[in-house]
Amino acid sequence: MLSDFSEKIQSLFKKFRGYGKLTEKEINEICRDIRLLFLESDIALSATKKIVEEIKNRLSTLEFTTETSPGTLVSNIVREELINLLGKPGGIDFSEKPTLVMMVGIQGSGKTTTSAKIANYFATKENKKPLLVGADVRRPAAQLQLEKLSQQIKVPFFTDKDPFLACEGALNLARSKGYDLIIVDTAGRTHVDEELLDELKALNERFHPKNNILVIDSMMGQEATKVAKAFFETIPLTGAILTKFDGDARGGAAFSLREVTGVPLIFLGVGEKIQNLEKFDPVRVVNRIVGMGDIEGLIEKVSDIKIDTSKKPPEEIEKWNFDTFLESMRQIRKMGPLEELLSMIPGFSSIKQMKDMIPDEKQMKRIEAVMLSMTPKERKKPEIIDASRKRRIAKGSGTSIQEVNQLLKQYEMFKKMFKSKNLKKGIKLPNFPIGRI
Ligand SMILES: Nc1nc2c(ncn2[C@@H]2O[C@H](COP(=O)(O)OP(=O)(O)OP(=O)(O)O)[C@@H](O)[C@H]2O)c(=O)[nH]1
Question: Residue 260's CB: how many other CB atoms inside 10 A?
């Protein structure tokens, strides 16, 4: 999440810490650095100008105290202004029952997946009764995708032969069954076109939804603001959801959207899975970016995971084998990419050596593939893995014999260490089972 931006802002904070005083020269330098960072991050010019101006004004009138160093004061101001730029979060208006939530956006933005994510969020976290409606009647595949997702999350699905009939029917059904919210997945096109906008306008005039939510791909960078403007000129948008935030390194859309369009963010899509939806919280996003972590988010993630207690690892570490490691790895991966999780721990992202020790998703998959290519017997008793078995495992997992050897070596080290009870004498754990291979 915003890895490039995060790295750059943290190195700027390091630079600011070196300032002994803040004269006009330093203030100009800070503003120049921030401007450059924003422009390199594909953030809209108006948003860049706004934050630089705010920072400059605050720094020019700053009162120094002896307790806080100039560098810390500057970093605090920049952090606060990043939070202000992201803007206060929006929400879903539940003042009507059922409330209509119209999901709009261009094709591929993640609209269908996000409709299901929201339904799941409100059903599981807020005890609401959602109804999912497929209104993209021209694309049977989109209807099918939403229907499948609705079955997966056990939320009812409704559709009809045109979007107006679908909404009408859904409203009647919701009123009779007491549903709280109707989430309508409207049609998307490859780009914003007149036909799409006309249909939305007509739906809006007919049903006056309390919620018109724009789903937008954060990877679009500041281009996202153009799409948002086109929708905003057609219907009154009440909020936006940025999808694929997990893959966005620069933050161009996130930091531009509010300033350019005024539309508040409500949720962030942070992965392909249904659970990968976060309520937008600017403080938590910024704290993560600047390396202050997000303990609250980490606790939420851990408590969301349903641990299968029948698969709990044995208490005695001597009994651990590759089955144990495979299972723990799966439990950890359910929470999302490892680096993402660790970035939620305050200070972690600033320790470069620690980051280098952590395998990325691709490496995790390779380690998992090696373990999965072992037979159940091999996983229980890895000592039986001889040269020909290693060849078979490497071939089956699409890795190399060296990689299989490396994993087995790390396993051996792990076992030896516990046998010799060296751990009690303060010896560091090897980076297994999450080490690089
Ligand atoms: N990494 C990541 N992928 C996402 C996220 N949200 C959606 N996707 C993926 O983006 C792709 C497009 O998502 P859809 O929900 O089909 O997009 P859509 O806007 O409904 O597109 P159409 O149905 O074609 O109109 C799918 O592969 C999703 O799994 C997210 O937050 N993170």
Answer: 21
Cβ–ligand 1 distance for 107 under 6 Å, the answer yes
**Using a 6 Å cutoff on CB, does residue 271 contact ligand 1?**
yes
Task: Pick from 103, 109, 113, 184 the residue to mutate for probing ligand 1's pocket: most ligand atoms within 8 Å of its CB.
Answer: 113
Task: Specify the CATH number for the domain of residue 326.
Answer: 1.10.260.30
Q: Does residue 232 sit in the same domain as residue 363? A: no
Q: Are residues 151 and 221 in the same domain?
A: yes
Nearest to 209 by CA among 242, 244, 174: 174
Strand partners, 279: 267
Residues 11 and 66 in one domain: yes
Residue nearest atom 10 of ligand 1, based on CA coordinates: 110
β pairing state of 130-134 and 181-185: parallel
State which of 272, 275, 361 you would mutate to test the pocket of ligand 1, scoring each by most atoms of that ligand within 8 A of its C-beta. 272
Q: Is the dihedral of CA 395, 396, 400, 401 positive or negative?
A: negative
How confident is the model over 14-69, as pLDDT tens digits?
A: 898 888 888 889 999 999 999 999 999 999 999 999 999 999 999 988 776 666 78
Q: Strand ranges (DSSP E) for 226-270?
A: 239-243, 265-269
- Complex confidence, ipTM: 0.96
pTM: 0.76
Do 209 and 121 have their domain in common?
yes
Q: Is 185 annotated as a binding residue?
A: yes
